[in-house]
């Protein structure tokens, strides 16, 4: 049992370099050029999954610490009982104590050694738990920064699209439109497919007439109709 607990602690200690490497990767990620929305969403999902794993490990550490504390208390109670028994036996059964002192002292020595080992394991596990808590805090900060940067970039892209659409409206020659095409103002819930169906035309024709490279349109935008 002692070998199993010691091996478990050594395995968890091996996770510390991985955690700090993960933090360094997030720092490098923050220094890289802006990624696409899909790449950012994927990275956020991976970071959240890593945080969930670390939080699960954190909870396991707390449970193990509680278990080790209980075992340590049990051993201390056993030591107290054995010590009291030895003192009583010295007064009542001196001969019996003489013949069995050696085995009891051996048992007592083993229990003391086990108690010291558990206390040391408990200290090591507490140190590892503190390090894991620090890493989790850093990961939370990096995730928050990345989310804010992603939201800001998304908002900037939307503003650029609105400004570009407004510029395209200004650049469209109104006299030609009035002479050759009908104008339609986009309303809430409209799409190129819906507009094409109502006016008996196709999405391709609408895109060609209005110089659109994608299907996205906005409310208030004016479209040429054949």
UniProtKB/TrEMBL annotation:
What are the entry keywords?
Answer: Coiled coil
Q: Tell me the Gene3D superfamilies matching this sequence.
A: LysM domain (3.10.350.10)
Coiled coil among keywords? yes
InterPro entries the UniProt entry points to: LysM (IPR018392), LysM_dom_sf (IPR036779)
Quote the Pfam families the UniProt record gives. Answer: LysM
Question: LysM domain location, by residue?
Answer: 182-225
Coiled-coil stretches are: 44-128
Q: What is this protein called?
A: LysM domain-containing protein
Q: Which organism is it from?
A: Parachlamydia acanthamoebae
Source species taxonomy: Bacteria, Pseudomonadati, Chlamydiota, Chlamydiia, Parachlamydiales
